[in-house]
Amino acid sequence: MPKILISRHVGDHAMSILSSSGFDLIVNSEDAAPSREWVLKHLADPEMAAMCLMHGQPSDIVDEELLNACGPNVKCLSTFSVGFDHINVKAANERGIKIGHTPGVLDDAVADVTVMLVLMTMRRVENGISLVKAGEWAQIPWAPFVNCGPSISHPSLTISFIGFGRISQATLSRLLAFTSTSHPPRILYTSSRARPDQVSIDQAFSEKFGVEIKRVEREQVAKQGDIVIVLASQNPQTVDFVNKEFLTWMKKTAILVNCARGPLVNSEDLAWALENDEIYGAGLDVVTGEPNVSADHPLVKSRKCVVLPHIGSGDYDTRNKMAELCVRNAINGAKGEALLAEVKV
Amino acid sequence: MPKILISRHVGDHAMSILSSSGFDLIVNSEDAAPSREWVLKHLADPEMAAMCLMHGQPSDIVDEELLNACGPNVKCLSTFSVGFDHINVKAANERGIKIGHTPGVLDDAVADVTVMLVLMTMRRVENGISLVKAGEWAQIPWAPFVNCGPSISHPSLTISFIGFGRISQATLSRLLAFTSTSHPPRILYTSSRARPDQVSIDQAFSEKFGVEIKRVEREQVAKQGDIVIVLASQNPQTVDFVNKEFLTWMKKTAILVNCARGPLVNSEDLAWALENDEIYGAGLDVVTGEPNVSADHPLVKSRKCVVLPHIGSGDYDTRNKMAELCVRNAINGAKGEALLAEVKV
């Protein structure tokens, strides 16, 4: 009887789909990551056909070691995430193992948190919360411009996106409910490379959203954006995309939000930029090295920066949809059928 | 030469309007509230014609004492706020003194913060930030349902408003960019009393926003709302509107957001409800007794409640618009002309 390995309970909704799939299930019974040994041992089982795995769980990193451990019938490794920076996709594919992931279903949830972080950063919420928690509110009572920040409905704002995929577009559609209608924002974005038909692509975007949208190079998204939003995938070209040079290009009144992956923004450079008033503030749902982020991390300590523990896709409906897609990928892969969402590189 | 008293610098934009108004200006030179004596002394000046004053500044509370101190030519007291719970309007009007305030110009800014608090509360951001700041992220790493909250795009959500004036409507127009389009939310609101033409009023609202909108009584906004938003003015009928009874009626999965005035929500009852899981969480921009809120206030300490230091209208553009309206009210009042925005009770 072929088996599916589940490295962590994925919720009642998705577990019930697995239970009726006809496969034997090997489920990590702890509400914690299993040991690497446990994973490798079960993957070596000649009857193992697929695995559901987690991003950010050390046991589940798909490297040469894990791939070498796979038994002859492992056909699919399905990650409970969109990102696949923890997976050596090329090496897996070379062994005939498909990689599944969960795009699409979390776009709305991540866009919600991105807009929330834009508002929180513009309104200096990190500072506001810290002030209240320190019992300092009475020392800084209401005054005409106390605790103020830039206005999201400021006329002719420029919003810059690093990456303009589905999540960026979902974010934009929400942001347009906040920005000025009489003086709408201008949207700039950058992507890995300009397309031959870039002008018509941008024209289609502009028509879809009813505002001017244009692809530009890295320097211009930095220099012109009042709000700079990082929503690109992590790869060697995007690591450290926002570094000291980029931050120095940014307006001193501009804010930065990262809801993609930590390494796209260099933490040391960002801490330096905040400390030196090179930018107004930052909102991060992700940070390099997470979850190993200590209380004395300079970005955690800064009152100009809010750091959230990677909650972008964290609403119950979304996580259940991700879980369902993750297990359906694994089931399809185990059967030798096409995945619902396969990573190919 | 008639004079205008300015109890606090209202920013360069509005000060320049005052400077060219033709009135002599008496301006508090400190970036802090003046003493009560300073205010009363200048109000007694026979040439004093109007005053620009602040909400939440103890020196500026418009009670019998302040009104009795006014010289014979004081015609207008103009507050830099929408709310006028610090002003005895009736007593002022009986003396022929008009009360100016600043409605309209801050609707968008307060709506921005209201939506932000809805998102923050649903996504348990208070808990997330506290966890990161305590260095606990590594102990609670990513897992399928860790740090999750209810989804704002959940099908057929009910959103309840206490008060459905301009700010509530601006909030709703933003929230609809986040909610499900295939299963849109139902909107309930309550107001001081049903109108004779309530059905046609609600029909007009429903058509304007493209979702079902209906006025109901207090018990129903509490019982049916997944998101309950307080945006009513403070008066004897609204103080303690959200009390233990109301909170017990609410769903255990529902959230409460207050961006109006602190006393509309009873703090002790809310702390009790959060402690006993009567509701999912709360987001407050205002709290009774502010700014005298200590670090050990139960709502400040709760990880289910975020408390912001009354930043609702706190973006620079909005505060400059409020300042302009405040000084124009004072100038018009001092001239004996109609105010741009007068409070009447």
From TrEMBL, chains A, B:
InterPro entries hit by this protein: D-isomer_2-hydroxyacid_DH, D-isomer_2_OHA_DH_cat_dom, D-isomer_DH_CS, D-isomer_DH_NAD-bd, NAD(P)-bd_dom_sf
Which branch of life, at top level? Eukaryota
The chain positions of domain D-isomer specific 2-hydroxyacid dehydrogenase catalytic read 4-343
Q: Extract the signal peptide range.
A: none
What range(s) does the D-isomer specific 2-hydroxyacid dehydrogenase NAD-binding domain occupy? 115-312
Listed under GO cellular component are: cytosol
> A single Gene Ontology molecular function, please?
glyoxylate reductase (NADPH) activity
Keyword Oxidoreductase included in the entry's annotation: yes
Q: Which residues cross the membrane?
A: none
Database matches in Pfam families: 2-Hacid_dh (PF00389), 2-Hacid_dh_C (PF02826)
Cite the entry's keywords alphabetically: Oxidoreductase
Coiled-coil stretches are: none
Which family is annotated? Belongs to the D-isomer specific 2-hydroxyacid dehydrogenase family.
Mind telling me what this protein is named?
Glyoxylate reductase
Q: Which organism is it from?
A: Naematelia encephala
